[in-house]
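note to self: dont lose this again. the chain is below, predicted strucutre after it. 162 aa total, dont forget to put it in the shared folder this time
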Amino acid sequence: MFRAIRAATLAPPRAPASRLHASHRRLPLPRAMSSSAITPVISASAPAAIGPYSQALKANGFVFISGCIPLDPATKDIVPGDVVAQTKQALKNLKAVVEASGSSVDKIVKTLVFVKDMNDFARINEVYGEFFGEHKPARSLVEVSRMPKDVLFEIEAVALSS
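---
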């Protein structure tokens, strides 16, 4: 019985490629992007990366923005205040990097938000909603145990390049 079920679920053997109709032959896979097609983005209006990474990279029609934390670009210190103040500053830093890439906030297609405490979700969501307005990018939001410099909020994003 098992053999009969297993045999019925297996796909029939494929004909050799030379006997397949042209529309069914496998096409060669595209080559990977060359490193010259990847452009770093640098914004003086946002804090510099605090590690060996870029603020953002432009590649293949997209902008990949590294995690933005609530650092004051002038002092490199965490903004004083609660999670609302930190969320506002991190989003301000995100906007600066996105705009330095030549794109804009309304072209952000996906965000990933990291929070220290899920109990702050409603307050974070309110600030996030005000920032994006009618534009609603796809989003994931996760609680994490610890972030760089022990901040309460971090956001990374992917945007369409202009």
